[in-house]
Amino acid sequence: MSPTITKSHEYYQDQVNLSPGTAIEPSASAIAQGFAQGPNPIPLPKAFQPLTIRGSTIKNRIWVSPMCTYSSEDGFATDFHLAHYSQYAMHGAGLIVVEASGVLPEGRITPNCLGIWKDEHIGNLSRIVNHAHKYGAVMGIQLGHSGRKGSTIPMHLYGTRTTFHSAESEGGWPNNVYGPSPIAYDDQHYTPREMTIADINAAQQAFADAAVRADQAGFDVIELHSAHGYLLFEFLSPLSNQRTDKYGGSFDNRVRFLVETIRKVRQVWPQEKPLFVRISATDWVEGGWTGEDTVALAKIMSVEGVDLIDCSTAGNDPRQNIPAAPGFQVPFATAVKKQVPGILTGTVGVITKPSQVNEITEEGKADAVFVAREFLRNPSFVLSAAHELGVYVKWANQYERGQLKTKHSYA
Predict the structure, then answer these.
(1) pTM of the predicted model, to two decimals?
(2) Secondary structure (H, E, C), the chain
(3) Which residues are annotated as catalytic?
């Protein structure tokens, strides 16, 4: 008789002896929470345990990090985006976060970046979301504003130019680059104009309006991009924010722009849908934003309705000294998780092996792992992880015949 499976999750099935092509959706859901074989059943690896946040249940903890693709015109998602994000859904990613999408035209990083500043963008984004949902993926979108790092060139053009400037003739907006203070990121970027209070109010409203469009497009999760030296983070760091009004100076003043934006977004974003914030947990520059600042801000964000802090680092000052190594940003997520009760954390950065993902989640260093470049190298990373960790997962029916047998079964 085949061992039975504990139905601890709606995606699980009653029997293990599955024939090829058995219709179980969604793909890459772990098919077990309990093989009770013997007195000491092996628990399902944490990387493949589902995570419920508000009204969304994410089938595993291996998530696609938002990554710019520079493949849009006038902010519109294209067939490339449909194919790009669908491959991750079909190959089992639990959560897919669509790349930074400008909440205003000048909020894009480059003229080729995705946008969500007008209602016309909704249709193409909705097409992506609907297709990914068929394979059980939870879909998120990162809402961003480039601030002083805007009107630049796509990454694939780096090295071909003496500066990162994107001129007006190339679709750039050199006269509409702004930030908290008139301080350029470096001599390859435009010097921004200092934002007025009216500018601040308009940018905050743009984030809220973009959240409404994200909901209309069917997204399950929003992530606010307050990292890597873009607008929301520029206000946080004393290296880029040297204002003397209520949005500059003290810690409380510098976090005000982000906190007010969170409030406006949370007011229009459905209560059953999760809200994430990606943050650069440190500038890696003396006198800049620190890990301690991140913990203090996380305590505020938790009260304001943020569900998960996605911890990255750097990107705000060229003097940064980044100690890049596998998992080098994990301690920041762990610090937030330990010191801020009730908040979830994610981590990202040089995480390329399934064993890393599982170690991070098993040991409670973070609740989930955002994987970036490894997904570009291997869109089937989740399925590879399942095989390496010995977990039986359901593949999409169309790919079922290619599935490799697992090493062993987990409880």
Answers:
(1) 0.91
(2) CCCECCCCCCCCCCECCCCCCCCCCCCCCECCCCCCCCCCCCCCCHHHCCEEECCEEECCCEEECCCCCCCCECCECCHHHHHHHHHHHHCCCCEEEEEEEECCHHHCCCCCCCECCCHHHHHHHHHHHHHHHCCCCEEEEEEECCHHHCCECCHHHCCCCCCCECCHHHCCCHHHCEECCCCCCCCCCCCCEECCHHHHHHHHHHHHHHHHHHHHCCCCEEEEEECCCCHHHHHHCCCCCCCCCCCCCCHHHHCHHHHHHHHHHHHHCCCCCCEEEEEECCCCCCCCCCHHHHHHHHHHHHHCCCCEEEEECCCCCCCCCCCCCCCCCHHHHHHHHHHCCCCEEEECCCCCCHHHHHHHHHCCCCCEEEECHHHHHCCCHHHHHHHHHCCCECCCHHHHHHCCCCCCCCC
(3) 230
